[in-house]
């Protein structure tokens, strides 16, 4: 990998294969090459994909017929007949993503270029498996209606849920956020409701992917994303690719017990990080002060009014998160740690400011190009964006390559 690829400034080379038995792979290579470079002619596609011109001509005709590509006309350059240009069809197939949280669902639709076509957040009164699938299906219908798209344009869908997945005996926040899902095949249940195969992803991992493609990580290929859902998760991007772990549970940092920077440490499940530094913990404190059922949108006015309970939580959370940041840096050596998720930006900014002074770690260097901790830019949609983007890559890309794409960057909402 070149130095520019490591910095996320160029696409990773994907090579096609000429045997007919690998035709499906070659289709993905052609789509990836066109998606990454915007538009080009058949000869240039064949050169970049390393597939024979005849194979490229056949694949392009197929993709035109399926509505995945559009013909733009001829590009005049030099002498001779100018080549016909082909591009991803912005009005063609769609992929979708949904974040299923304890109290809301966030849904996003992308076109094949990666552009956001529609997105919405809706409250969720019940997160049980008998209620969620129908609600997700309804939200998809609403978004399709907004852009005048038929439901059959949807060709892939990703869903994110708080982990950890299929783990016995963990008693901190994570397993309790979505009641009734233990033993339920979430993938099959959602697939039946949506009418499409659904991929399931850890919310923090999907959030890191969303931030990589649409937010602060567009020019950063190695970073860690501390995701504030109801609990607390960690997404890790290494050379632009998410670290998932053997069972999809990499980054369950909320279940780690850490000694705070100040105060008395707790041990066991009650000492888990997300018991103190999470939206769940903040809501517990506010409920104890007589304000139950506070949602994310209500938090910003509380911050503006310098609410003492919120101010106290920021201080306590920072005491736990400062050593957490140093631990993450020492383990993963990221370019930066990104804070994001369901907390308002002003609270994330205050939380990051309260981390100072951060403990010394391998990231304590005077010549840094990024601050040690930054705020994400994709807000409450970051996990849903990641879910839809992963579905897009699962369909189009011969390998999961999340290198920087100008087309995707330009498509930010």
UniProtKB/TrEMBL annotation:
Pfam family, one: ROK
InterPro entries for the chain: ATPase_NBD, ROK, WH-like_DNA-bd_sf, WH_DNA-bd_sf
Superkingdom of origin: Bacteria
Region (Disordered): 1-21
Stored SUPFAM superfamilies: Actin-like ATPase domain, Winged helix' DNA-binding domain
Gene3D superfamilies: 3.30.420.40, Winged helix-like DNA-binding domain superfamily/Winged helix DNA-binding domain (1.10.10.10)
Recorded family membership: Belongs to the ROK (NagC/XylR) family.
Identification of the protein by name: ROK family protein
Species this chain originates from: Pelagibacterium flavum
């Amino acid at each position: 990998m070149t130095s520019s690829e490591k910095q996320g400034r160029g696409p990773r080379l994907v090579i096609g294969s000429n045997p007919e038995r690998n035709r499906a792979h070659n289709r993905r290579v052609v789509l990836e090459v066109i998606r990454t470079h915007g538009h080009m002619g058949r000869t240039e596609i064949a050169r970049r994909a390393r597939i024979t011109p005849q194979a490229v001509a056949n694949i392009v005709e197929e993709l035109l017929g399926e509505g995945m590509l559009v013909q733009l006309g001829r590009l005049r350059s030099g002498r001779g007949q100018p080549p016909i240009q082909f591009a991803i069809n912005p009005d063609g197939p769609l992929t979708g993503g949904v974040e299923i949280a304890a109290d809301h669902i966030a849904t996003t639709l992308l076109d094949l270029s990666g552009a956001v076509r529609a997105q919405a957040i809706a409250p969720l009164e019940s997160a049980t498996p008998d209620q969620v699938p129908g609600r997700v299906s309804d939200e998809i219908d609403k978004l399709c209606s907004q852009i005048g798209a038929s439901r059959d344009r949807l060709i892939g869908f990703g869903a994110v849920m708080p982990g950890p997945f299929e783990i016995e005996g963990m008693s901190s926040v994570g397993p309790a956020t979505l009641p009734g899902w233990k033993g339920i095949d979430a993938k099959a249940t959602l697939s039946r409701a949506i009418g499409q195969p659904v991929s399931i992803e850890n919310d923090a991992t999907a959030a890191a992917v969303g931030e990589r493609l649409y937010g602060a990580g567009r020019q950063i290929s190695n970073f860690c994303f501390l995701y504030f859902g109801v609990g607390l998760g960690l997404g890790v991007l290494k050379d632009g690719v998410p670290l998932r772990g053997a069972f999809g549970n990499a980054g369950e940092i909320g279940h780690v017990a850490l000694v705070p920077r100040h105060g008395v440490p707790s041990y066991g499940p009650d000492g888990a990080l997300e018991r103190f530094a999470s939206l769940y913990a903040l809501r517990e404190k506010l409920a104890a002060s007589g304000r139950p059922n506070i949602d994310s949108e209500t938090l910003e006015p509380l911050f503006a009014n310098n609410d003492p309970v919120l101010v106290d939580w920021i201080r306590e959370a920072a005491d736990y998160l400062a050593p957490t940041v140093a631990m993450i840096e020492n383990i993963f050596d990221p370019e930066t740690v990104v804070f994001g998720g369901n907390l308002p930006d002003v609270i994330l900014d205050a939380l990051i400011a309260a981390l100072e002074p951060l403990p010394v770690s391998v990231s304590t260097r005077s010549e840094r190009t990024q601050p040690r901790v930054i705020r994400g830019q994709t807000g409450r949609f970051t996990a849903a964006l990641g879910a839809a983007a992963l579905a897009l890559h699962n369909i189009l890309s011969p390998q999961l390559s999340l290198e920087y794409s100008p087309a995707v960057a330009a498509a930010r909402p």
